[in-house]
Amino acid sequence: MDTKLFERIKKINQEINCAAIKARRKTSDIKLIAVTKTVSIEQIQNALNSGLHVFGENRVQEAKDKILKIKNPSIEWHLIGHLQSNKAKLAVELFDVIHSVDSLELAKVLNRYAETNGKVQKVLLQVKLSEETTKHGIKKENIFTLLDLISNMKNLKTLGLMTISPYFENQDMARPYFRELKNIRDTAVGEGFKLQELSMGMTNDFEAAIQEGSTMVRIGTGLFGERK
Ligand SMILES: *Cc1c(COP(=O)(O)O)cnc(C)c1O
Predict the structure, then answer these.
(1) Do 31 and 216 contact (CB within 8 A), yes or no?
(2) How much distance in Å is there from the Cα of 219 to the middle of ligand 1?
(3) What are the CA-CA distances from residue 2 to residues 5, 9, 50 (Å)?
């Protein structure tokens, strides 16, 4: 047991709860993804013992070592970082949810490996809403075409959309980005796509993201401290 980690988890959960209440939303509709990139296996085990069970990694190889060593079927593993096609096979073998689908090519490859694995791979489409922050992500104007094409892939299930907001000192500045992702999701739902999830919000801006409708917050630093 790690008391400092335990306290941080408690604090983040309280903050998620407060943000949900302010937004008149249910806390149970918001999933906390503990981002464990660079975090040791021992710390992940501590987090698990403190009640966390959904973990996010951003690199396939780093995640592989951890997932195979920890080997706990009650953990839900999410890939939140960019995925190259040559790592797609491994990603399908390791992850419950992949947040970073950003091209038709990648979707095709994932669908093929999922079929080989006899699995329906849950994915989110990563959307690029600003020029500066992220290199990766689909442009707004291409989302609907991609959603349409993926809906025909039998071994992929699109749960929703993911985005990374630019960094702002004041998290209220990130709200327009979160609001835009939600608008895109709502439009897609209006067109018949079943998209529940909005993966948005990190340590610095998760409260604003929850206000704007986030269903999955990805928090690293707030739980495990600054990364080296
Ligand atoms: C690292 C990372 C996070 C977590 O960032 P923190 O600021 O440490 O909470 C969330 N999402 C993605 C895609 C990341 O790479």
Answers:
(1) yes
(2) 6
(3) 5, 11, 9
| Structure confidence by residue, pLDDT tens digits, 32-45 | 999 999 999 999 99
Segment 41-80, tens digit of pLDDT: 999 999 999 999 999 999 999 999 999 999 999 999 999 9
Q: How many CA atoms lie within 13 A of 152 on its CB side?
A: 7
Number of the ligand 1 atom closest to the C-alpha atom of 35: 4
Residues in contact with ligand 1 by the CB-under-6-Å rule are: 35, 37, 58, 80-81, 164, 202-204, 218-222
Phi first, then psi: give them for residue 167, nearest 5 degrees: -80, 135
Q: How far apart are CA 126 and CA 81, in angstroms?
A: 10
3-state DSSP helix/strand/coil percent for the chain, to nearest 5? 45, 20, 35
Q: Is the pLDDT of residue 7 over 80?
A: yes
> Which pair of structure tokens corresponds to residue 170?
């004041």
DSSP state of 192: T
State pTM to two decimals: 0.97
Task: Report how far residue 178's alpha carbon sits from residue 159's, in angstroms, rounded to the nearest whole number.
Answer: 17
Q: Which atom of ligand 1 is nearest to the CA of 162?
A: 13
Ligand 1: centre distance to CA 202 (Å): 6
Helix, strand or coil for residue 101?
strand
| 15: number of Cβ within 10 Å | 16
For residue 125, report the distance from its CA to the centre of ligand 1, in Å.
16
DSSP-derived 3-state class of residue 165: coil
